[in-house]
Amino acid sequence: MHRIFNRLSLKIAHKLPILFVLIAMISVISVGAFSINNTSETIVQQKQQTLTALAEARSTSLNQYLVSIREDIVITAASRNVQDALPQFANGFRDEAQRHNDPLQSLQGIYINEKATTATSSHGNKEALGQKHLFDGPTLLDGLYHSQHQRFHPWFRQMLTERGYYDIFLVDPEGNVVYTVFKELDYATNLLDGKYNQTGLSQAFKAALSNKKVGSISYIDFAPYAPSNDAPASFISTPVVSQSGFEGVLIFQMPIDRINQVLQVSAGMGETGETYLVGSDYFMRSDSRFSQESTILKNKVETTTTKKALNGETGIEITMDYRNIPVLSAYRPFEFQNIRWALIAEIDEQEMLAPVKEARLFILMIGAIVLGVVALLGWLFARSIVHPLQKSTSEMLELADGNQSVEITGLDRKDEIGNIASALQTFKENAIQQTQAASENLRIKSALD
């Protein structure tokens, strides 16, 4: 650099500021590059840790909720109301068969009472579709079933409302759906040889029927369910065993809304983050929080992280999501009753890197400010050196031209400029003495002559 500056035809007034700026530039670029890289890594690591923690928190919350359902169905099956209700409904169902020969037609005609899909009755349910559970039963009809329905239905309805279940079923040992709260078209059908004997509800009944041990649980994963207009439905079942023996099966149709509430908590997820479940068929088992319509069994998520989670792996990485958008994806397996799902927590890479871009811009702005300040300080410093030097040079030229009256500045300085001024003052004094000596010699010589 020394040789380069010597070759440049620049004055010191220009060389010094340039030197300061170059040194500052090298320092700022080096420190800035390190800071940007270090800040970027720190922010990404923080995002990874946060997303991983959120995925774990959602997994824990979901597990606690599903375990509470499992505990609830076991406790409910052992309750006095259920152990009384199921045999009473079963007896009422048989009584209805004796009265009307076809209990499916008579019961659906009274408790559903929709001309387009069922038989109808003048004493039947007048509530609209979706509100059939508000009907306690006919008051003007005789029959064991109706009296028991009026007795037990308010309790089951309150339970469904408070717990958020989609529906609650009681099925007798012969497979007859002797009671449901919501009264869809599966009501009063037979799950062994009836219209819906291949559905998830039937599978839940058959699973409980094959294991009549008190407290045993069977879970059937989401699948389209015809009586619910092919909406996704999953079921959990347990046998009902009283002192008299096996009474039948209690089944809950799982609450999709409650599961979504657990997974769709937006706290900590930013604007683009979401958490969802994916089944072994790669279709969603929960709704995306960004979709107005249900995405369960509709959106296929056959991504790298989903496959890893379904294989039992846990981790986090940048990948393409089901929208073909790059995301930071935290993944982990989630298991409930021998069913494995992939639990995925994701946030768009663009949002994740936004703080990195902001930090990079901030560091660049600080670097530019530092360079500007250094350039100004370099110019001021060069001026503080060059201006006295220029003054000393002018005074030196005056002395060289014989002007012994020139005033020497900078004598009060304690630095090298002061040394130069002292030297010039010495030259001036010596020059004056020489001039005086020459004049004296000339005077003496003139006197002798």
Provide the descriptors you would attach to this structure in a database record:
four-stranded antiparallel beta sheet; transferase; HssS/ArlS-like; Beta-Lactamase; 10 helices; phosphoprotein; alpha+beta; HAMP_dom; EC 2.7.13.3; rod-shaped; 449 residues; single chain; five-stranded antiparallel beta sheet
Explained architecture:
The structure is a single chain. This protein is α+β, with helices and mostly antiparallel strands. Among the domains are: 51-66 and 261-351, Beta-Lactamase, CATH 3.30.450; 79-213, no CATH class; 402-448. It is built from ten helices and nine strands. The chain has a five-stranded antiparallel beta sheet with strand order 2-1-5-4-3, with helices on both faces. The chain has a four-stranded antiparallel beta sheet with strand order 6-9-8-7. The longest helix is centred in the first third of the chain and has 66 residues, at 12-77. The protein is rod-shaped, with a radius of gyration of 46 Å. It starts with a helix and ends with a helix. The mean pLDDT is 88.
The shape is: rod-shaped
Largest sheet: 5 strands, antiparallel
Helix content range:
40-55%
User: Over all CA atoms, what is the radius of gyration?
Assistant: 46 Å
Number of strands: 9
Helix-strand makeup class: alpha+beta
Cα(first) to Cα(last) distance is: 65 Å
Sequence of strands across the biggest β-sheet: 2-1-5-4-3
Beta-sheet strand percentage?
Answer: 15-25%
Order of helix and strand elements from N to C terminus? HHHHHEEHEEEHEHEEEHH
Low-confidence parts? none
| Mean pLDDT rating | 88
Number of continuous helical runs = 10
